[in-house]
Amino acid sequence: MARRPADDAPRPSPRRSGDAAPTPRAWAARILALRTKEERQQALAEVPEELRELVKKHVEIAWNHPARRNKP
């Protein structure tokens, strides 16, 4: 099982291969991996403004997906 970084440890931004900017789905995946609502809200605030609404929609869709409710 992968270790979770300390809360004060810097978290790398999601990146695609090379120096390309992070995709909205990469941002959403990073946000969904966080444990608390406060962490998720803080991470959403770090998303560039022009992508924020799209990332928020990706997170909402993934959060409300029926398959997520069936996890133990």
Task: Provide structural commentary.
Residues 1-10 have a biased composition (Basic and acidic residues). Residues 1-25 are annotated as: Disordered. The chain is an all-alpha fold and 72 residues long. The chain has a domain at 24-69. The protein contains four helices and no strands. It has helices at residues 24-32, 37-46, 49-63, 66-69. α1 (24-32) runs antiparallel to α2 and α1 (24-32) crosses α3. The two termini are 17 Å apart. The mean pLDDT is 84.
Characteristic terms for this protein:
53% helix, 72 residues, 0% strand, mainly alpha, 4 helices
- Strand count, sense and closure of the main sheet? none
Report how far the terminal alpha carbons are from each other: 17 Å
Order of helices and strands: HHHH
Protein structure class: mainly alpha
Q: Quick gist of this model?
A:
By secondary structure, the protein is mostly helical.
Lay out the secondary structure:
Blueprint lengths: L23 H9 L4 H10 L2 H15 L2 H4 L3
Helix pairs in contact: 1-2, 1-3
